[in-house]
Specification:
Blueprint lengths: L1 E6 L2 E5 L3 H8 L3 H8 L18 H4 L3 E5 L3 H4 L19 E5 L5 H15 L5 E3 L10 H7 L2 H4 L4 E4 L5 H4 L9 E5 L1
Parallel strand pairs: 4-6, 4-7, 5-6
Antiparallel strand pairs: 1-2, 2-3
Length: 180
C-alpha cells in the first residue's frame, strides 16, 4: 500500500489484491469472477456480506480519500464542544491514540459504553471485538463507504485522514479524543 499521487484534493491509495482474493474467495475463480468482474454484469453489490466480505475489500485495488480542512469537520477549531450523552451518526466519537499513551484503558471503557448502548455494530474499536486494523487506509479498505458513513464511533491507531473516511462535514461533526 502506498500513496500514488496527490490528485488535486485527494490522496490515492493502491493495494495488492492477491491476499484479498485468497481471503475472500479461497481461490474460487468462479466466485471471484461473479463478485469482481463488473463487465459480466455482476460485481459491486452482487456478493456483499458485510462487514468483511464486500466489493471494496475483496475487489477494489485503489481508492481515494479527499483532503479536508479542519473547518469542514469541526464547528470551531480549538474550541471544546458540549458533552454528549451518547454518540450518534451526526456526532460520532473518534478516539485516536499512539502506542504507550494509555489508549487501551480508554479503548476498553469506550467499548464497554458502546456495548451498554447497543452500538457495537455501528462502530469499529480496534483490538476489541473488531479486528486490530492499524492505519486509516486499511480501515477504508475493510469497510464499505456506506458503513463508514454510519459509524457512531471509531477507535484505533489511525491518523487524521479518518475524518475524511467517516465523511465528516456540515451534517456530520465528530467529537475527538487524541492521545499522543
Amino acid at each position: 500500500m502506498g500513496v500514488l499521487a496527490h490528485a488535486g484534493y485527494e490522496e490515492i491509495y493502491s493495494f495488492r489484491q492477491d491476499y484479498d482474493f485468497v481471503a475472500c474467495f479461497q481461490a474460487d475463480a468462479w466466485l471471484r469472477k461473479a463478485c469482481c468482474d463488473v463487465d459480466e454484469g455482476f460485481g459491486r453489490g452482487t456478493c456483499n456480506s458485510p462487514p468483511f466480505f464486500h466489493w471494496e475489500r475483496c475487489c477494489q485495488s485503489r481508492f481515494a480519500l479527499p483532503l479536508l480542512d479542519d473547518a469542514v469537520c469541526f464547528h470551531q477549531a480549538g474550541r471544546t464542544s458540549s458533552p454528549q450523552a451518547k454518540p450518534s451518526v451526526e456526532e460520532p466519537v473518534v478516539f485516536l491514540w499512539d502506542a504507550k499513551t494509555g489508549g487501551n484503558t480508554l479503548r476498553q471503557m469506550m467499548f464497554e459504553s458502546l456495548a451498554d448502548f447497543g452500538m457495537l455494530q455501528q462502530s469499529h474499536i480496534s483490538g476489541s471485538l473488531h479486528p486490530n486494523i492499524a492505519g486509516t487506509p486499511f480501515l477504508v479498505k475493510n469497510y464499505p463507504p456506506d458503513v463508514l458513513g454510519h459509524f457512531v464511533a471509531v477507535a484505533g491507531h489511525f491518523d487524521w485522514r479518518v475524518m475524511s473516511a467517516l465523511r465528516c462535514g456540515p451534517h456530520r461533526r465528530p467529537k475527538c479524543v487524541v492521545l499522543l
